[in-house]
Each structure stands twice: as C-alpha cells, then as structure tokens.
Design brief:
Distance between the termini of chain B: 42 Å
Helix content of chain A: 25-40%
Strand content of chain B: 15-25%
Strand order of the largest sheet of chain B: 6-5-4-1-3-2-14-7
Order of helices and strands of chain A: HEEHEHHEHEHEHEHEH
Radius of gyration of chain A: 20 Å
CATH superfamily of chain A: Thiamin diphosphate (ThDP)-binding fold, Pyr/PP domains
CATH topology of chain A: Rossmann fold
CATH architecture of the largest domain in chain B: 3-Layer(aba) Sandwich
Structural class of chain B: alpha/beta
Shape of chain A: globular
CATH superfamily of the largest domain in chain B: Thiamin diphosphate (ThDP)-binding fold, Pyr/PP domains
Largest interface: B-C, 76 and 76 residues
Number of helices of chain B: 21
Oligomer: heterotetramer
Bound molecules: thiamine diphosphate, iron/sulfur cluster, magnesium ion
CATH class of chain A: Alpha Beta
Distance between the termini of chain A: 61 Å
Radius of gyration of chain B: 26 Å
Number of strands of chain B: 21
CATH architecture of chain A: 3-Layer(aba) Sandwich
Largest sheet of chain A: 8 strands, mixed
Chain lengths: 284, 576, 576, 284
C-alpha cells in the first residue's frame, strides 16, 4: 500500500509561505489516495518556480524547458500508456511560452493531468507580468501596468471542448486533493488552474485577495452543461468559482496503432529482418 | 551507354507519372538509373522537370547531358531546347505545342491515347512507348512495367495502357528521323532483385530497420517525404507517427518518447530545425538519444523551398547555447542513407546524444536503382541499459546521470521498473537534481564532453576514389558524392591526377585522419553546395589546413560533374 | 590599495542594499570600484554574495582576494572564511551567527539599529558604518551617501540612518582587534563626475543614446536588467517596450518595428536566442537592421540560469539555416558596452543586417565606477535612406532590394511616402517578389554576402596591452578583459614577456589583422569562459593559426587574474 | 480617388479555381471602397498558399515566416499607427505554427485586420491535415485520418473576448467585402475566418460542401451578446453561420507612451545629447 512515507518531502528553494507548498502537499495526498507509487508516476514540468515541483517530490520526473512540458508529456504517454502522468508549470510557462502546446494538447486530449500554478506573475524571473496578471498589474517590463486583460484559461479550454477543466486554490488542500483525484481519473487531458499566491512578488493577488473571492460551485452545478460552464468560467473578479467547471468526457486520444498498456509499441521486440518485405514495394 | 531523358511540363500535368515510368522502364531494361526532380514551390503551373539518366555503370549523380526531351507544354520546349545534345530530339504532342525547330519530333500523345486506349489519360503510356520506340528499346519492358503498375486496377486498364504504349512505340519507329542515332543496348539483367528508391524512402526504410518507434513532425519540404513514407507504414512497422502543432513540439515530443524508451526520429528542414534549436540542447543536457534528420534547402528563411543546398552544416554543428556532444552525418545516396540512419540510431543510443543527419532536397527526391536493402544484416545496439532486475534493485538510488569512466550512464525507462528516473534541463547532479555547485557542474559537463573525444576517435574515415598518386584532392561531403566521383573520372581521363575525398561523418572530425587523408595534395579543392565553403572552414578549424580552390554552388540546383569541371579555376580565398 | 569586501547572505536578506551602499561609499571615497554579484536561481534562501573591490587604479575585474566579509548568516561564514586573506575579518551580528573563529568580529547590527535608528531595518547602515570604521574611512562619505539614498524619504529617515551608521562606525573603531592592519587611504576625488553602473544599465543607456525606439523581450536572466532599465525609461526616452508572449514573437516584433522604421533592440539570453534563430534568418534575407543582445549564461538548456559563461560564440555566428551577413561584437565593460551598442545600431543600419551583441551574466551584473557617458559625442548613422521626395518619385517602382555596387539598397519606410515597400523571407528579386530563377537567386545572395567582405575590412582591431616584445600572447574576447589584463601584469612583474590581445569585434574577423596581431608569438594562450575554446576555433578556421595553450572556465564563475595564472599549464590540444 | 485600377491583379501561382482568388478580389474591392491607396496599407503574411496573397496585390507588404505574421504586424502598427494593416495566412499558418501569437494578439488587441484563408488543409505542402481539418480527414501524415476535432477559431476568439470576429466564405464576394470593411473599421484586432476551398487537396470541404452548409446570420442577430455568440460560433457541421459572430468593441491596444498617428514615436527626431540626463541617476 502506498503511504505518505513513500513521498517524503524534501527541502525546497521556494520562499517561506509560498503557495507552491500547498500544491505539493495536495499532490502528495492525492497520489497516496490514488494508490500510486513513485515508480508508477511521471512528473513532467517546464521551468519556473512551479516547475521545480518534481525536484521536491519522489517519483519519476522529467523537468524540461520553459513552456515545453506538454509535448514531452504527451509523447511519454503515447509510447508508454502505462505511465500515470502529472504535468506542472506556472502561468508563464503554460499560458505565455507554452500557449500553442496547450491549445493543441486540449485538442489532442492525451490522458494527462496538467496542473498550472497560477500566481498571476512570473515568479522565478522576479515579478514581471504574466498572461494572467490583471490589467494594470505593475511588473518590471510594464512599470505603468500591463495593458492587456488577464488571460482566463477556463473559457479558453471550454471553447475547445476540453474533456475536464477545474479551478482550485492552493490555500484549500482538501479541495485541491479532490480536484487532482478527479482529474487523474478522467481518461483524457485534464487542466487544473490552481490559484497560488506568490508572497514575494504578487502583492495584488494575495492569500487574502483569493480568500475574499473564491467560492465553491454548488452540488447541483452541472459541469457537463457547456453554456452554463462558459458563463461560470468567466467569473474572475469579485467572485471566483472553484470546482470542476466543465467536463465533456471526450474520449482520450489514442494513436493510429493498437498500443495497449500491457504491450506498448515502444517496448515490442524488434527484429530488423522482419521488415525485408519493405523492399518489395520498390522492387522492379 | 549514358543517356538522359528530360520530361518537362507544368505542375499538375502528371509529369511525375511519366518520369517514374521511364525510370522503371530503364531499370527493367537493366540499366543503372538516376533521376532528379526539379519542381517549383507551387501546386499547379510553372515549369517542372524530371531528368532521367540511364547508364551501363552505377551512377550517383545527374549530369548536364540531355538526349531526349518529352515536353508536355510549350515552356518545356523553350526551357530545354538549348540543353539538347547534338542528335537529340524533343517529343511533344502537336496539339499542346507548336514549335519551330528541327529538333521537334511530334507524337500525337492525346489522339493515340484516345484511339488505342479509349481515353486521353492514356497519353502517358503513349509517351512512354514513343520514347522506347525511338531508342530501340523492347516493348516487353514497357509491358511488364505497365502490368506491375496497373495490376490492381484490372486487366482492362492494363490492356488499354499496353495498346497505348504500343501505339506510341510504333509511331516512333515509323516516323523517327533518318539521322536519329541514339540507341539502346538492353543489358542482360542480373538475377538479383533491384530497387528504385529515392533518398526519402531509403531514410524511412532505414529508420524502420533500426527499430524506430516514434516519429513526430510538422510538414516541411523537402523532409515531408520521409514522414509520409513512415506514416504510411506505421501499422505494419509499429511506429507511432504524430503530426505536431509546430516543430518545437515535434522535437520535444521526440525527446519525451526517447526518454520513455522509444527510438525516436524527427525529420525536418532548415526552418524547422531552427525552431528545434532549444530542444536540441535539452536533448544534449538530458543525454537523450534522438535522431534528427535535416533535409536542407536553400536559405536563409523560406529561401527556395523546393530546391537543394548544403548550407546548414556549421549551423547543425553549433546550434544551441552552451556545449554538448553531438554527431553529424551526411549520407549521399539511398543505400548510404539506409545504413547511415541505422548507424545514427545506434550511435544515439550508444552515446546518449542527439544525432543530426544532414540530407538535402537532391538526396530526398532523386531516384536511384540499387540492390535490395539488407535488413538481415542490420545490427541494433541500444547502448547501456539496466535490465529490470538491476533497475529494481536500485529503486530510488538509481542515478540517471551516474559518473562513469566513459561518460555514459546506464539507462532505465520510467515506469518499467522500480527504479526512479529523473532528469532535467538545468545542470544537475548524478541523480538528476538541479544543482549550482561548481564542482558538480564541472563533473557533469566533463562527463558529457568526454563523449566528444570518443566520437572523434570513432569517426568514419572519408571515402577515397581516383588516381593512386594524385596531386589534386576534390574534397566533398553529402549529396555531391556522385558528381565529384564523375568529375574525378573526367579529370583523370586526361591524366591520373585527381582523387575524391568524400566525408559522411562530418562532426566531430578526427583531425589526425583528416590530415592524413588530405594533407599530401598540392591542390585541395572544396566542392560544396553552399556559398561560404562551410566544410572547408570546419576542416581548417580542426586541422589548420586550408583549401587552394573552391567549387561552390548556391543557386538551388545540384552540383553536376560538368559544373565542377567548368568551375575549377584559380583563386585561393573565398570572395567573402 | 586593493581591497575586497564580500557581503554574503541568503536571498531576501537585503545583501544587495549593503553591497550597493559599499560600492557607492567606495566610489565616494575616490576609489575605483568593481563589484560582482553571485546569486542563486531562487528568490529566498540559499547563499548569495556580493564581492566589492576598491582600488587606486582603474579595475575591470574581480579577483580572488578577500579582506573583509560581512556575513548576514551562518552559511556566509562557512562559505567565505577560508577565502579570507591573512589579517582579514568577518563582520557579523552575534544574534544571527554563532561561529568559532578568531577571525570573527561581532557587531550587533540589529541592536545598534534599534537603539540608534529606531528599527531593525537600519541594520544595513550599521553594517556600512562598521565596515567604514574598521577600515579607517571617513564617516562623511557614508553620510553623503545616506543623504543621496534617503533624500526622498525625508530628513527623519536620513538622520536615523546616519545615527545608525555612526553607531556601527564607532563600535568598529572602539572594538577592532589590535592587530587589524587594513587601512583606507581616501583618494582625493577628481572634479569629474563619475558613475557607478553595471553592464545592463550601460547597455540600456547606450541603446537610448543610439535612438532605439522599440524593444521587445520575454524575461530571461541575465538579460532582463537591460529590458527593465529601458522599460523604466520608456516615456522620457521615446521607446516603445513590448513584453512579448515568447522569444519568437519578441524577435519578429523587433523585425516588424525595424522595417517600419524604428531602431529596434531585442535583449535575451541563450535559451531565448535559440528560439530566435528562425527570425534571425528572416532579418538576414529581408536585410533588416536589428540589434540582438544575447547575455550568455552556462548552457546547455536551462543550465545554470544566474551564472556566467562565454559559450554561445560559435552558435551566434552560425545560427540559422543558409548563409547571410551578420556582425557579432562582445563588449567587456560598462563603458565599452555603451559605445558598442551605439556602434551596433549604426552598423545594423549601415549594412542592413542583424547585429548580435554578446554579453554575459558577469558583464550584466558587475558594477563599475566610470566617467560619465558622453552622450554628446554619440554619432547616429542611419545608413542609406531615401528622402520623401525621392521615395515619392519612385512610387511603385521603388525596389527594396535594389542591386548596388556595395550590396546595400536604399530604404524607405512603408506608409511614409508613396513608395511601395515589399520584402519577403523567400528568395526574391530586387522588388521583393518571390522568385525561383537561378540567376536572380545568385544576384541577391551575392548582394547580401558581399557585405560580409566589407564587414571584415571594417572589423575593429583587437586591443593590445602588456610588454612590448612579448613572447606570450593571451588571447581573449568579451568580459574576461579585466582578468586577462591583470594576469598580464602579474606575469610581467616577473619579466616582461606577456601581452593581452583582446577582441571586441568577433565576427567576421579580418584574417590579415588577426594574423598580424597574433602571428608573432611563441606561446598563444586562449583565455575563454567555455569548455571548447570557441574563439580559438574561430581564429584557426579563419587563419589556420592554432593556440598552444588554453585557460578555460566552465563552472559558471567568472575568470579571475589568479585563475589564469594558476591554469597556465602545458598542453596543446583540448581534451575534447 | 482610389479605384480598382490602383489594384491591378497580377499573375498568381495558385491553382485554377482556388478559393484564394475570391479572397483577393474581395480584398481589392474592400480596399477601393474603403478608399485606401496601396501606399497607405501594409499587407503582412506568413508562408503558405494563402500567405502569397501580398505578392499578387499592390501595396506595401511584408511576407515573413510561416506562422509569424502577427508579431510583425503588431509591431509595425505600434511604431507607426498611421499604417492600415491587413494580415493574411492559412489555417496552418495561423492556427498551428502561429497559435500562440494568435492567442496573445487577441488579448493584446492591436488594431489590425487578420484574414485567415481557412481551407482546412495544408495546401502548399501538399495536403496534410491542418488544425481545422475535421476528424477523420486523410492527409499525408495521417493516412488513417486525423484523430483530433477540427479547431474552431470563433469560440476560441470569443473565449478571450476578442473585439471583432467574423466568418465568411470566399465563394461570396459581397459578403466577404462587407466583412473586411467592417473589420477594418473596428479599431482593434479583428479576425475573419474565411472558408476557402482548396480544389486540389481538400476533396472533403469543397465549394459544394460549404455552399450546402453556410447561411447568413439574420439581421436581428446581436453580435454583442456573448453567450449567444458562443452558442452560434459552435455551429460547424450541417450548418455554418456567416457574418460578424461576435463584437465586443474592446478598446484597441496602445503603448504606454503617447504615440499619435501624426507623430509616431518611431519617427521623432533624435538627438543623443538630450539624454545626458540619464547619467544623473547613476552619479556618485
Ligand atoms: C526560453 C526561456 N525563456 C525564458 C526563460 C526564463 N524564465 C524562467 S521561469 C520564467 C517565468 C516564470 O513564470 P511562471 O511560469 O509563471 O512560473 P513561476 O515562477 O511564477 O512559478 C521565465 C520567463 C527560460 N527559462 N527559458
Ligand atoms: C517553420 C516552417 N515550418 C514548415 C514550413 C512548411 N510550410 C509551408 S506552408 C505550410 C502550411 C500551409 O498550410 P496553410 O498555412 O493552411 O496555408 P495554405 O497553403 O493551405 O494556404 C507549411 C507547413 C515552413 N515554411 N516553415
Ligand atoms: S517568488 Fe513567489 S512563486 Fe516563487 S517561491 Fe517565492 S513566493 Fe513562491
Ligand atoms: S493547393 Fe489548394 S489552396 Fe493551394 S493554390 Fe491550389 S487550390 Fe489553392
Ligand atoms: Mg507564475
Ligand atoms: Mg490551409
């Protein structure tokens, strides 16, 4: 049986009080509750404060380039569908540098859980505005405030009929655990946008700011109702809903070849001689 | 016998079918065939052509000869009439082309097709028959070819094509000019089966032979042929083919799949390769074995999208910030491409590095006759892998980047054992944790760079061809091989003074071997399909040895033997 | 007098404030100051430090000395105690640090701050005062500094800081060990105003002086300082600063703005530069003047994000498929950076090419005293521009890529006249239409490459320093200048045998000048902040001249004079 | 006065019958009706069949890289707001390679008209599936058919509260002219997704296929109603609505500095000596 002892928590380079700690704890608890052992999972990430998470957890991990976690994660899954894959990154990583990959990962719908640590700021590079920074946010490159609206990933995801999209808050571990478990159980691409205070740089979107605004979607909320979901998803102001906002349960992407979990294409034995038949097509 | 037929026309006129048929017919007749395609970056219209060369000897290049032109439109007459050798003819349909030249030989392709095949579409077979008739070929070769081609469409289609071909054949024999002297001598075919393949297909076949299990790509001419060949064989060959949203994703996907355990191939061309530069270094620092094929075309930027050049060499060697080992190879023919790709996969796995194979449009699209590829003798070397038991026993103590004598750490694949796999694009320790300490950095950096020295030692020696005690060395790499070889022959006809020294392994070079190979010549002539003599620069930076002359081409067209002969002129320095 | 103070602590402890204050205090006291920052890729915690060197002579480098350490935490004591020169001391607050060493000199920073300044936050001023007291400096320098710093916060704040500083100052004088011998000699300040600037600021100021009107960037250490400096001056300096969604967009935006008519700057670091490679060639083929600043850090991939290296040199030279002219320069100090950037903009406009300026983290973050920048003598050369009348008269006949003697075509800016501007990343004719003809391709390709030869001719000669009839040449480029200069001095103390030959213009090199500069030495020693001696390779590929020795550093730390002296050993070849 | 004679039509490399011809004609007529002369406009494009359009038109033009038209176009506009800019490209150019730029261009809202020639295929590279190809579409790399849903740019754009988004059809010149004019008049980022048959490669989404499906939004359709627009925008099957689907009239992006049309920052005179004051900040 998997226990919390399988996931010891190592020292981090995060600031004391950072919202990332809450995400790490929730992830650990979700993994334990899902009964997943470190060697069964793969943690994939990009570059940023959020993206360091795999360094501070047990489990297989691949920490790649800024903004490029999703293509790697999808390919890992395609060639070895037995892996349970969780992907991590910041709002800069996922929504700025990695925007195109997110767009197409949503379309492709490979079975992954993608957790965005959305602190509405570029943390690791010291406080520049990110796509999710709200209009007027003052960062190093935008000393007079950004002049764009904050990017809201939820309606974006819904517009492409994502299979599963949720919003959670690093300040509420139980909620986040529940979201991670639900996302992981959905067989397809699941996005969780997690509100994560950056106590060092983001002096606007603080713990208090989030706490004052977040609320839970009621039990009778129907996440399969797309129009309702689209409407709800746009709330990001005085009130911010948490929960599974939309769930279409689109079937997961599979490759054009049969590639079962117990016989992944990547590991089938190979004998070059078996392919002599290819000569035939070009023989005269 | 060395004979060249050009088929010219607008895109969309089906000249590829006629071209292919002539290639195969030549092969059936026992010749060695080499055919190039010259096409514009458009789907309809413009002027495209196929150059098909038949020879009694094995050939690896196109040349400047032109004995027959099949002109499908008026432009083709204009384009090629001055290329015609004395005694050559231009075949065309009087309904398509009205030209005033004694070289024109009219064949009513369309009318004969309708009359004998029942439809204008049979015109290709008429043209085929006409060429064969003119050259004194045997109609049986054409028949056998048409049977192979149309078999699946039923005997009616086969027969109609045959009648059409025969009509063209007989028309040609009956009407050919008295003074037309070109003639076939059919070669008695050996019993060995032969192939007609282009470079793209050969690369695809090589990758399959090597056990490639994942390919990701974004379409880009002239690399798409490789991707499409493999895509069309994915089921029978156990290969997952993913069309990525862009080239950045394509390479990163390949890196993911490779770390998962699949041999991965990423074909692209220069512009796509540019977008992969960041990912290349990720493969470098994570010690990921991956094969990237860059099919070069003239740059910079979009350049000439459907043409050929050898101008990505120094870029391929130096792409990405920082330093890490890589291997760059450049095959020159379909058969060499087949084995180079296999070697690329084995070297990638052995050294756990990215391997870049440089091809070009000329290699990709040129068809050549060759003996069947020998899948049986393909050897697979996946390098240092821990078996499941070893991996399980290590568990959380497994170190992906373990420091070892040779710099190579044993691999495991995540999820395939209880070993925990971890790596990162940041500098790391043996276990794959991010570090910043100077000593740990030095240890991992030197571990990686150590492989470079071993790669150097294992670098393949250049191919040599020509006169024994030559004083002139023609130094070349990649797809120019055939042209250089024939240029050497042309030079040596007038006195045995020239030698070809041709490189397939491009980087890292072994300075000792290079000095040994090129050091002793009075003249060293770089032959390259670029404007700045990139390989010559590389040689000089590794050995200090410079060239004495340069034959360069950068108009997007392939280097031919005649081009080399014409351009061997005085002059030491490059103009820029 | 040559004295080094280290301030060490965890990220977030405010060591930058103390460090900066010490730098300025040293400058106030009339010294030449050079200070480096060593920080980890994290926001809080870890171990960071500031190394501040005061000297009577102008200095361009950090070194290995260490006379005083201000330790803000226990780790700092551990890290630096062994670096201390004999007679040096470690200053720390007994409440933060409990260490057992006779080198420790306790100063209750916190308590004195509360007592004399009313708040713990004044501890920085206490520390400052204590250092000054120990060294026998004058409290007036500190006062004047505190006035400058806190002026805007009101006299109360100024006074509290002053009292705190005085408390530290007096504490130090009273309690300093008897045998403590280090001593200040204040230098009578010249009347000329001086600056304290780091490389990032100097680059930003240079760009503004050059009339930069557009900057686009995606944040990346260590280039962000440049972007943020310019962003904070956008209004007063007429510069549009755009934070792009990624580096690809950043460069393409810069190219758009440049073609519109704005001088454009794109700062980045290696990883971002990797993503710009495709755009770089677009600038090349469209003949777009643009300045890219690549502030290098150790690669490959994410590598060591906050540290320094000189390993993107060959990458910068060869990035992108195909061939086109570019200029690569590497300044080595704030003052040189200021003028290099101006020259970069002028050369970009003159040749209509991309110019790449290579800096690194060491240049970006090192502070130096310097005379004020001379904006008055900055010359602007925007190259060949048609005036409105000329442009209007051409109208639709204007040819953006007109063939000219020198390969440079007059520019117009779209929408600023009736001339029609057209260009493309495909190969084109003079008017900017896509073409495929061989002759048109050759004409445009040669037009572009012709500029390379002219660039070569105009390449700046290397800086030379050292003994007249030296037999040893230390060959360097970029930020190692100061270290090499002092290493030459150290060598020459024992006999005048060494000379520095330092390059700012890196590519294209003029082989004749290089041979002249380095050809006559018995020993040629490459000094580079990378593992493969990239500049040495470039020199060899251009001149055939190899090095006899290599001093390389690739642990992310800057090269110091002592590092050079310690590492000049035998051995010709590189290990890889 | 601007007339059609200012916009002579040059020879193209497009296939006879290609939908691109209709777009070119509509563009010409719209430009004439808008009274814009060739030297006042700037045509920006990427690479592909669609992206060749500026080659076959009069007017200033910048034909850049595949997928990279938008960053260039936005910068042109920022430094010289007097330019009237039209951007062209295919569905591959805009929605595959260029996806991230589109996402952020919508957020940024620089005043441009972006026309996507959506032929649901990669034309220039000979028929591979594009993001807008419908599930099952057989292309060279997907011989068993694509396994992703076709990308629908309209809900995508609405989800980010685009200022103006329309769909049109190259087979209806009048409609397309009207859309181009409306888009051009909107002061902000306007996207027009134009259905454009590729007669050579796309044998599924033919002229007939489109003609059978397209219909015009009724006069009383309110494009400012976001939820309605979101619902409408998802019709892409048996019926495909044409018209201005959503219009939020968000104010156009401007830079942090005053940059009027008649005195663009890029062209203000420069005297280095004026910046001597910068020394001050760093003086001791
Ligand atoms: C190609 C590239 N560009 C830029 C960077 C620098 N960089 C590192 S992390 C980061 C953004 C961090 O923001 P986010 O992704 O939101 O993560 P956070 O630190 O806030 O968790 C950037 C720009 C990089 N590493 N690589
Ligand atoms: C970086 C890069 N990758 C790939 C290509 C090859 N390429 C040219 S056009 C094109 C796609 C064409 O499709 P689309 O954008 O839909 O335009 P269409 O031809 O259909 O109008 C591709 C992949 C390229 N030129 N550059
Ligand atoms: S900078 Fe912000 S996001 Fe990064 S560790 Fe500190 S608090 Fe967390
Ligand atoms: S291939 Fe298709 S899109 Fe391209 S020109 Fe032909 S019909 Fe038009
Ligand atoms: Mg963030
Ligand atoms: Mg298309």
């Amino acid at each position: 049986m998997v226990t919390v002892n399988d996931y010891p928590l190592s020292e981090t380079a995060w600031c004391p009080g950072c919202g990332n700690f809450g995400i790490r704890l929730a992830l650990r608890d979700a993994l334990v509750e899902l009964g997943l052992a470190p060697h069964q999972i793969l943690l994939v990430s990009g570059v940023g404060q959020a993206a360091k998470l795999p360094m501070y957890m047990s489990g297989n991990s691949f920490t790649g380039l800024h903004g490029r976690s999703l293509p790697a994660a999808q390919a890992f899954k395609l060639v070895n569908p037995a892996l349970k894959i969780f992907v991590f990154g910041g709002d800069g990583d996922g929504y700025a540098e990695g925007g195109n990959h997110l767009l197409h990962a949503i379309r492709r719908n490979v079975d992954l859980t993608y957790i965005v640590h959305n602190n509405q700021v570029f943390g690791l590079t010291k406080g520049q505005a990110s796509p999710t920074s709200l209009t007027g946010y003052v960062g190093g490159i935008t000393p007079q405030g950004t002049r764009m609206p904050g990017f809201n990933p939820i309606p974006f995801a819904i517009s492409m009929d994502i299979g599963f999209v949720a919003r959670s808050f690093s300040g509420d571990k139980d909620h986040l655990v529940a979201m991670i478990k639900a996302a992981s159980k959905y067989n397809g691409f699941a996005l969780i946008d997690v509100l994560q205070p950056c106590v060092t740089f983001n002096k606007v979107n603080t713990y208090k700011w989030y706490k004052d605004r977040v609320y839970y979607l009621p039990d009778d909320y129907d996440p399969t109702d797309k129009e309702l979901a689209f409407r709800k998803s746009q709330e990001f102001g005085e009130r911010i809903p948490l929960g599974i906002i939309y769930q279409s349960n689109r079937p997961a992407y599979t490759t054009a070849i049969d590639n079962p979990t117990d016989d992944p294409v990547a590991f089938r034995p190979h004998n070059p001689a078996d392919f002599t038949f290819l000569n035939k097509e070009n023989e005269i | 016998m060395d004979l060249t037929i050009v088929v010219g026309g607008a895109a969309g006129q089906g000249l590829r079918s006629i071209g292919l048929a002539l290639v195969k017919a030549g092969a059936k007749a026992g010749f060695h065939v080499f055919a190039t395609q010259d096409y514009m970056s458009r789907i309809r219209g413009g002027h495209n052509f196929f150059r098909i060369r038949f020879s009694e000897d094995e050939i690896f290049t196109t040349n400047q000869d032109c004995h027959l032109v099949v002109a499908l439109d008026h432009d083709s007459v204009e384009f090629h009439k001055n290329d015609l050798d004395r005694g050559g003819l231009i075949l065309c349909d009087p309904k398509d082309v009205q030209a005033n030249s004694e070289k024109i030989f009219y064949v009513p392709f369309g009318d004969l097709a309708i009359e004998h095949g029942g439809h204008k579409i049979m015109a290709n077979s008429v043209a085929l028959g006409a060429v064969w008739g003119l050259l004194g070929g045997e109609i049986d070769d054409i028949y056998s070819l048409l049977e192979d081609t149309w078999e699946t469409k039923g005997t009616d289609v086969v027969e109609k094509n045959k009648s059409s071909a025969l009509a063209g054949f007989e028309h040609a024999i009956k009407n050919k000019p008295k003074d037309f002297e070109l003639k076939f001598k059919k070669i008695s075919t050996t019993h060995e089966k032969r192939l007609v393949v282009d470079g793209s297909t050969a690369i695809g076949m090589g990758a399959i032979a090597a056990g490639c299990r994942f390919l990701s790509a974004y379409p880009m001419t002239p690399s798409t042929g490789i991707t499409e060949y493999i895509a069309s064989h994915q089921n029978s060959c156990n290969i997952i083919v993913e069309q990525a949203e862009d080239e950045i994703a394509a390479l990163i996907m390949g890196i993911g799949a490779a770390n998962a355990g699949a041999r991965s191939l990423v074909p692209t061309s220069g512009g796509g390769f540019s977008l992969m530069v960041e990912g290349l270094g990720l493969a470098g620092i994570t010690e990921t074995p991956i094969v990237i094929v860059n099919m070069q075309r003239p740059g910079p930027a979009t350049g000439l999208p459907t043409r050929t050049e050898q101008s990505d060499l120094l870029f391929a060697i130096h792409a990405h910030q920082g330093e890490f080992p890589r291997l760059v190879m450049a095959p020159h023919s379909p058969e060499e491409a087949f084995s180079t790709i296999v070697r690329a996969f084995n070297m990638a796995d052995f050294y756990q590095i990215p391997v870049i194979v440089l091809g070009d449009q000329y290699l990709a699209d040129s068809l050549k006759t060759t003996t069947s590829f020998d899948f049986n003798s393909v050897k697979i070397d996946r390098g240092k892998l821990l078996d499941e038991e070893e991996a399980n026993s290590l568990g959380g103590d497994y170190k992906r980047h373990l420091l070892t004598e040779d710099g190579i750490s044993p691999r495991v694949f995540p999820g395939r054992s209880r070993a925990i796999f971890a790596t990162t694009g940041d500098e790391h320790d043996e276990s794959g944790n991010i570090i910043e300490e100077a000593d740990l950095r030095i240890a991992q950096h030197e571990k990686r760079l150590k492989k470079l020295e071993s790669l150097r030692q294992n670098s393949r020696k250049p191919l040599e061809y020509g006169a024994k005690n030559a004083s002139i060395a023609l130094i070349s790499w990649g797809s120019t091989y055939g042209a250089v070889k024939e240029a050497v022959d042309l030079i040596n006809k007038k006195g045995s003074i020239a030698k070809m020294i041709h490189f397939i392994d491009i980087y890292p070079l072994n300075p000792d071997t290079v000095i040994e190979a090129i050091g002793g010549y009075k003249e060293r002539i770089a032959i390259e399909g670029n404007a700045t003599a990139q390989f010559a620069k590389l040689i000089k930076s590794e050995t200090g040895i410079g060239m004495t002359k340069y034959v360069l081409r950068y108009d997007g067209r392939p280097i031919t033997p005649e081009y080399i002969i014409d351009n061997i002129k005085e002059g030491g320095n490059l103009p820029w």
